[in-house]
Amino acid sequence: MVNRRIAEILRNGQPDESLIVQGWVRTKRELKEFAFIEVNDGSSLAGLQVVLNQDLPDYDKILKKINTGAAVEVAGILVPSVGKGQRIELKAKEVKVHGEADPETYPLQKKRHSFEFLRTIGHLRSRTNSFGAVFRVRNACAYAIHQFFQEKGFLWVHTPIITASDCEGAGELFRVTSLDLTNVPRTENKSVDYSKDFFARPTYLTVSGQLEAEVMAMAFSNVYTFGPTFRAENSNTSRHLAEFWMVEPEMAFCDIEGDMDLAEAFLKHVFKHVMETCPEDMEFFNQRIDNTVLATAENIINNEFERITYTQAIAALEKADVQFEYPVSWGLDLQSEHERYLCEQLFHKPVIVTHYPAQIKAFYMRLDEDEKTVAAMDILAPKIGEIIGGSQREERLDVLERRIQAQGMKLEDLWWYLDLRRYGTVPHAGFGLGFERLVQFMTGMGNIRDVIPFPRTPESAEF
Predict the structure, then answer these.
(1) How far apart are CA 401 and CA 42, in angstroms?
(2) Where does the Aminoacyl-transfer RNA synthetases class-II family profile domain start and stop, copy by copy (predicted)?
(3) Residue 169 scores a pLDDT above 60
């Protein structure tokens, strides 16, 4: 007999096929002469109904072992189902119980559980319908991301997790050290003696792989990163994680227009792939989580994104007949409420805002000719606000040095980054996408902690 995944059986299985399924019991229903169990192996939202007749060897003994949560292996033959909701079912010939689950203590009985409760049992929550759907969509998103860049000839580069630089300049860094914190070595002026540390200098978990990706783009033209990043931001909100994944492409010989074109095509590709490969999961989110999920996806796929400057955005917001919580004026950063107004009420589709004030953007963004704005671009999406942030990078050595010093940073700390402008500099651009924010946006899940298997947040590092 052939071992088959349940998703493939439900799609293509035919009566009289002999096969083996392995998975976990979702439900058990006992009747006088036989019993039904639903088995799910994580490959699909729906499980496979299995019929256990009394002529099954050790029927009574096996039935006592089978409860919700038990791991089973069933060998049998597919037969047409007479019940509603399924085309075929598996008539069991042999059942092996690999692991029992005590119904008195197993926390995932067949009832609705709150997401707050499920976070307390992170080692089991993936067996629920909601989290099974989330992680299948997450997987499809990751596949689509690699597919998009690989088909365009991008090189996937692995940027360091341990770094000495703060790319964003925000200072929200996790320190990495091998020093004995109960006996920290000190210099003569009582500061920490980092010469005794593993790397002989202060080091941190990375907040972004962008600067290193720029290094690789200066040799391979088009590259992308896809890996974990870290922010020591003490925010207990539904939008923040201390550990999350980032996608960051960098393109040599590219300006802000090319950056916007790629970012828009990228988002459309990922949404289209997920809609094609996870239709049942997306329909589940639309029915159970947020009834605009499918409409949002169609909006992304089928509309050309609106493109406006920051100055135009501010003018539109100032004219809006809306009482915003945060003030609107040129020079202030856009808040989520402003971003959502532009997408949801003004344009009714994704919006790309460009050319932000230089003083609210990072040092590496290319200074515009007016020296007031930079060649930055943010993609704003309905229901979530900013989903992608990017820019043309500053390729002029003198301007970059000036920008670094203006933000209170030391040139010597970024000597290698400046070298890229000394030796073969080119116009180049890139963007960053928070992977979990994308999955949250796509699924309609209300809390970002519920779209990553093991969320890391303030005072929480379980599982």
Answers:
(1) 52
(2) 135-453
(3) no
Q: What are phi and psi of 443, to 5 degrees?
A: -95, -15
**What b/e readout covers 23-60, taking b as 16+ CB neighbours within 10 angstroms?**
bbbbebeeeeebbebbbbbbbbbbbbbbbbeeebeebe
Q: How many CA atoms lie within 13 A of 355 on its CB side?
A: 15
388 to 262, 351, 379, 407, 437: CA distances (angstroms): 11, 11, 5, 23, 10
Q: Dig out the tokens for 462 from the structure.
A: 């379980």
CA gap 462, 455 in Å, rounded: 8
- What are the distances in angstroms from CA 400 to CA 16, 39, 404? 70, 59, 6
Encoded tokens for 172: 């929200």
Report the predicted TM-score, pTM, of the whole model to 2 decimal places: 0.95
CA Rg value for the chain? 27
Distance, CA of 413 to CA of 426 (rounded, Å): 22
* 261, 243 contact by CB (below 8 A): no
Say if CB 147 and CB 153 are below 8 A apart: no
pLDDT, tens digit (0-9, with 9 covering 90-100), for 423-461: 999 999 999 999 999 999 999 999 999 999 999 999 889
**Conformational region of residue 101, where left means phi above 0, alpha means psi within -120 to 50, and beta covers everything else:** beta
pLDDT in tens, 238-260: 888 999 999 999 999 999 999 99
Tens-place pLDDT, residues 331-389 = 999 999 999 999 999 999 999 999 999 999 999 999 999 999 999 999 999 988 999 99
Query: Which residue is associated with the tokens 């690699």?
Result: 146
**Torsion angle of the four alpha carbons 342, 348, 352, 353, in this order, in degrees rounded to the nearest 10:** -20
Alpha carbon distance 85, 440 (integer Å): 29
